Amino acid sequence: MHARDRVRTALNHREPDRVPAMMSASKFVVERLKAHLQVASDRDLLRALHIDVYDMRGIDYKSGIGARYIGPPELGIPADWHGDFFLLFNYHEQIVENSFGPSHAMGDPCLADFATIEELARFPWPQPDWFDYSTLRAQLEPWSNFAIAATGCSVFQHPTLFRGIERLLLEMGTKPEIAEFIMDRVTDFYYGYFERVFAEVGDLIDIFRIADDIGAQNNLFISPKMLDRFLAPRVKKCIDLAHRHGIKVLFHTDGNVRPAIPRLIDWGVDVLDPVQPEIPSLNAVELKRAYGDILAFSGGVSAQEILPFGDVDAVRAEVRRVVDALAPGGGYILSPGHPCFQVDVPVENIVAMYETGFEYGRY
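RE: above sequence
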């Protein structure tokens, strides 16, 4: 079974030949994995790890495929832009060193200096018409044996980065018109961009990923009332766009989002990403029993404890546990409990995770 068929079968809640897998990682982890596995290209790395999903933004979210930039030259965006949406908003992550090596960290909020809606309106908000989408098919067709994920859309998480999370949360309660202005400008861009992407190459795309962290370790960090006002209409708008093209929607949120799962289902979410096993209410067996006929899942392999600090045998046991809980009947994609590997995870553990999924995840 080809990777694309495998993913499509699983997301339609049927059992393929084996559990499909997906992966993303920081560029520093990608470099280590390529050296460890003695491969040179992203394609060879994905094949060596038995990965079934190709992310349009690349494994590292920064070196993949994007529409050709034809917008204002003074913004310094290269014509062969590779899908790093942060560049379009003039948001720059920092690279910091920790005991494990280099990692990406949050940058300075690019909207911090704008106090009013009038000032915010003068910010050079990116526009969907800044791109030539006719270049996408030739770039994507070589990846057509993979399931292709269109990623980067965010109606809440990116606004928190661009404005500063504490400030945006405060404005949602005290100056909602400012919060809504920012969220609308961000949503309008992503909706317009992906509307054009899907019109051009929607037949090649299988998954649309929306990333909007709404959970902390113990509970939601915004109230259900705030979810209904600020996220629901914007997320549903983007979900409806993907569904019109027959594309499944994967909603990424870290943290304990169990109280929000009925809302996510109402919004039209097809895949919840990730199952975070360190959170008791996200117990994989219980989630599968409660929602497995409606939702598909990804994640589940402990990214806070076992992947960074366990040995290879512990990783293999963890993968078997998660596959046993989430794979029956389809509806599961193997990935870690935090979707993007960082340098704290030994490459041997990453390899062991995907080797075990390949071997043990047979139906």
